[in-house]
Amino acid sequence: MPEPTRPLRQLGFLTIGLFDPADPAAGHESTLQIIELGERLGFDSAWLRHRHLQFGISSPVAVMAAASQRTSRIQLGTAVTPLGWENPLRLAEDLATVDLLAGGRINPGLSVGEPMHYDTVKHELYPDSSELEDFSYARVERFARLVAGEKVREFSGRQGVTEEFSNRVEPHSAGLRDRLWYGAGSNKSAVWAGANGFNLLSSSVVFPGTDQDPDFARVQQSQIRAYREAAAASPQALGPARVSQGLVVIPTDSASPGQREKYRRYVDERTPRTQAPQGPNRMLFAPDIIGTSDEIAEQLYAHAGFQEVDEVAFALPFSFEHEDYVQILTDIAGTLGPALGWTPAEVADAPR
């Protein structure tokens, strides 16, 4: 097996938090148990997808708040929160609150753009302003300023006997601005994130330029390099430019024969979409990586995108059962991670 270009420094996982609409509480509890398991296994981070009007986590802020009280060390993040659905000021308040409750462990991942299927929901989401809303980078820039503690207004101070008012978002969580990530799939977004002081989430979806060879790994590598170049030249850089890669990996080391068969069917069904860019935006999906940990490690070492990073948040498949996620996470932490040069974090007793 080839040696990695650098040891893996941070190992995380990403989950959609799928639930049965007939029993949504059970699905949310399963997600919390998976995060607790991740901490016990030594993972560095757990990330939540953000889904609206679907059967996945619609309120990762609430789930992270709950998880923060059942864990003590693992970093908690979103990958990603689409800001088109959010009021930036209110979201800044919520995330700062949860970050304080978590002891500074929250890593908000963000994206901008018009909400998915906007025409079907805009009458409820923005009934009076749907045609006026700004879904550009300005929306995430405003959110970042608010998180950083910049002035919201001039008015502040005491009013009456007991009312005390602030001119910034409260509570303020120092350090949260440094932990903002941007989910970029295009070269333009990657450069913007680097130039504006965001960490970079690079996932299993990219948008190659019209002049690029549609090879996922090479496109991702190009975007990561463009991000780092922009970050290095940016006066807004807040520290080292961090990049996390998120691919779907499914180790089968300890899987049962039935699990292996199910996992293989899942990958086979999804593979055709990875063979050419999809739709008018030329969306390109990464192939899922399945096999033993040694086989997966060998493929990752040869992956041009993986060669650029020392942080990953491997995505859990959407539609598996709780026991499948337990097996996959256990194999990632116990076998795949060490094969990539990763060392598990020391496990502390979690609060209950």
Structure description:
It is a single chain. Helix 6 links the parallel strand 9 (181-183) and strand 10. Mean pLDDT is 95; it is low at 348-352. The protein has helices at residues 24-41, 60-68, 88-101, 118-125, 137-148, 187-195, 216-233, 257-270, 293-301, 322-339; strands at residues 10-15, 45-48, 75-78, 81-82, 106-107, 109-111, 157-159, 163-165, 181-183, 199-202, 205-206, 243-245, 249-251, 284-285, 289-291, 311-315. It starts with 9 loop residues before the first strand and ends in a 13-residue tail after the last helix. The protein is α/β, with parallel strands linked by helices and 352 residues long. The strands form five sheets. A five-stranded parallel β-sheet has the order 5-3-2-1-16. Strands 4-6-9-10-12 form a five-stranded parallel β-sheet, with helices on one face. A two-stranded antiparallel ribbon has the order 7-8. It has one domain (10-339): Alpha-Beta Barrel (TIM Barrel).
Beta percentage is: 5-15%
Please state how the strands of the largest beta sheet are arranged side by side. 5-3-2-1-16
User: What does the average pLDDT come to?
Assistant: 95
The span between the termini is: 42 Å
Named at the architecture level, the CATH assignment is: Alpha-Beta Barrel
Entry summary:
The protein is of the alpha/beta class.
Task: Considering the chains and any ligands shown, give keywords for the structure.
single chain, alpha/beta, TIM Barrel, five-stranded parallel sheet
Write the layout of secondary structure elements.
Layout: E1 10-15, H1 24-41, E2 45-48, H2 60-68, E3 75-78, E4 81-82, H3 88-101, E5 106-107, E6 109-111, H4 118-125, H5 137-148, E7 157-159, E8 163-165, E9 181-183, H6 187-195, E10 199-202, E11 205-206, H7 216-233, E12 243-245, E13 249-251, H8 257-270, E14 284-285, E15 289-291, H9 293-301, E16 311-315, H10 322-339
Parallel strand pairs: 1-2, 1-16, 2-3, 3-5, 4-6, 6-9, 9-10, 10-12, 13-15
Antiparallel strand pairs: 7-8, 11-14
